[in-house]
TrEMBL record:
GO biological process: methylation
Keyword terms of this UniProt record: Methyltransferase, S-adenosyl-L-methionine, Transferase
Species for this entry: freshwater metagenome
Coiled coil stretches, renumbered: none
The name this protein goes by in its record: Unannotated protein
Amino acid sequence: MTVTSTATASADSSPDPERWIQAGIGWGARAAEWAYLFEPYARPANEMLFGRLDVSPATRLVDIACGSGFAAQLAARRGATVSGLDASAALIDIARARTPDGDLRVGDMFALPFADASFDVATSFNGIWSGCEDALVEARRVLTPEGRLGLTYWGSLDRMGLLPYFRAVIEHSPASHQSATMEQGGTSAVMAGLLESSGFALTEQGTVDVTNEWPDLDTAVRALAAAGPSVPAIEAVGYDAFCDVLRDAMDPLRDTSGSTGLRVTSEFGWVTARPA
Ligand SMILES: C[S@@+](CC[C@H](N)C(=O)[O-])C[C@H]1O[C@@H](n2cnc3c(N)ncnc32)[C@H](O)[C@@H]1O
């Protein structure tokens, strides 16, 4: 399955050339919360994919739709020469602080501002979805002929701990955003088709669990309200009202150990590929 959101999409394939700018404004509206309270949840997926892709000091890596650069920072710690691109200037500011030596740019993944064949590895963690073939064509262009691609995406619905969050988003977003917020599509078969149609040959695929951990419900709500898909719902009902909705939705997920915390595990799918 694919989880995305139109105006704030992680994978916006609209023909409107300005649409990526709107996506960046949405994702950057609460940049610090996204960067520090949310993005680190993907670390198991980041580390696993970098391992599969042999990211090392010899690697020139670009992370596409890199958000606040948490993954890029991990790649830099492996010694890679790191570039990244995201639509949000506020998130890129944090990415630059995390990896001062990196080449981190604000821009559109459908028109990467990088030269042909300039990277050994391209990754995108929940940044490229079904319908974004053109972003993959760009990824292929900037990879060397021997380059490696790695993508993650939301996995099975039955293994998605954050489903109550996405249900709340759908219920409170304007109708124009609902159908795009949650749709079937990010299955391994769909991703394999997406790769093939954009000039890649699938190498490996699998799943990996990621876990959001928050010390209390209010922190969880701050984090979730900062995610791009929340933006249309916040615009529709207001920030405080949407936070109340999230509090109700997430309350049943409190840790059963007796602490105030929440540990919410979801599945990512992942694929690796090479230029065909
Ligand atoms: C789900 S977040 C993923 C961020 C990061 N990769 C991570 O692992 O947390 C999606 C990201 O895609 C970015 N984005 C959306 N549309 C974009 C576009 N057309 N070009 C570049 N980035 C885009 C958003 O700004 C956001 O940071």
